[in-house]
Structures are given as C-alpha cells and as structure tokens.
Amino acid sequence: MALFALAVLLLAFTGSSSATWCVCKEGSDAILQKTLDYACGAGADCNPLHQNGPCFQPNTVRAHCNYAVNSYFQRKGQAQGSCDFAGTATVTASDPSTGGCSYPASARIRKCLMSLPLRDQWMEKEESVVHDIHWLRKSLYLSSLFGRIGPICCCDQPGRE
C-alpha cells in the first residue's frame, strides 16, 4: 500500500506540467462581461473578485472574466466543453495567476485525494495507509503553498477549492 501512496504522490507532482486553466479569449468588454456574468451565475466562485478580494486587481473585465471561467471550469472537473462559453474562452497550459491571485488548477490525479477517508473498513489494520494518506495530504498542501501544483481542492465539497 505504501507503493500505491508513493505512486499517487509522484503522479500529483508530475501532474503539475499537465495542469490546465480556462481563460477568456480576446473580445469586447461587453462580450466578456456576458461570459463573466454567466460563469458567476452558473456556479463559479466569484467571491475573490469582489472589491478587496484577492483577485479584484487588476480591476478589468478581462481579468475578472479569466478568473470566473477558470473557477467554473475547475468546479466542473475540467469536463469537456466546460471551457467554451459560446466560443469566448479557451483552455491553456499557462498559469494565468497574477500577484496575490492564485487561479485553481485541479490536476485530475490529486482532485479527490483530500477527500480520501482516513479510516475505512479495508484500512482497519493498516495504520501505514492512514499514515501515507496524511503524508500525501501534507506534501500536496506544502507544494500548493509554494506554487508547485496549484491549490488543492476536495471533490463535491463546495468552498474547499
């Protein structure tokens, strides 16, 4: 089981090179504002875009649109078509994070790691598994703090991205 834990960790770290974000394409402010409004109304976490929020600056329609469509894309699990917005957005491998605003990039392998149970009936006698999960969580958390793999989120747990 320790080998499994090590494999998951290695995939999480190598997954950083395949991280993807969703950003708005070039367009008029009116079109980008419609995309922004749709993303925020359809499930994106737009709280960081509020005044005094960590992603309020730069205070441009394009910057806010980028954050909103990416939040929507990540919350939808990077599902096919969730970064289209009627042709106004596109997937990119370049991290659009700016200053104090970190854009989520949920690599699929670590997406649900934080929601793994610490105790389960198959783990009852495997204390090393519990230790490995704790170790993986701490390692991924520390890596996210230093920008190696982006923020860590939990599956199906709103507000934990």
Automatic annotation (TrEMBL):
Superkingdom classification of source: Eukaryota
Domain X8: 20-103
InterPro entries, A to Z: X8 (IPR012946), X8_dom_prot (IPR044788)
Record keywords, A-Z: Cell membrane, Disulfide bond, Glycoprotein, GPI-anchor, Lipoprotein, Membrane, Signal
Compartments it resides in: Cell membrane
Pfam families, sorted: X8
Signal peptide start-end: 1-19
Membrane topology: Lipid-anchor; GPI-anchor
Keyword Transport: no
This protein's GO CC annotations: plasma membrane; plasmodesma; side of membrane
Main localization category: membrane
Protein name: Plasmodesmata callose-binding protein 3
